[in-house]
């Protein structure tokens, strides 16, 4: 389908085949990301490589498994530290939840705050991964992503919805959660592109 843009330029809308190909690419990317996450602390690098792969595919600039692997190797050099910090945050939240279940004074409040902090950290991590490029500083990316997480609540909510879909898929049909992970990568990439366009 061909439509006229806002400045009189003609642009072509993607057809069903292109949309389905992008959907299939998201699922394949989810498998690659899940495999790379098996290193436990490698999750940030895996999501960063997945986002770069999908960005290349949507802009028709290639997107082979070799490019994904090269991006993953580049991202994991410093990204493993971010992954380790993420597990430390998760452990702190687990302690809060245990305190809440044990009935300690203020435990429920601490558990709720910890859970919100964990969700916010996951969203910021995904937003940072969506903007990662080789040589970029994870510290700078995470600081900027943290600000965007707070200042763009609509975009952050969309990413939370993507995470919820993966969690529910894992509960009801665990093997399907692996390819669906690619949809979370695509959601983070779309949210970041939307924010950049604004």
UniProtKB/TrEMBL annotation:
Domain of life from the UniProt record: Bacteria
Keyword annotations of the record: Membrane, Transmembrane, Transmembrane helix
Transmembrane spans: 20-47, 78-97, 109-130, 157-190
Keyword Membrane listed: yes
Name used for this protein in its record: DUF624 domain-containing protein
Annotated organism of origin: Streptomyces doudnae
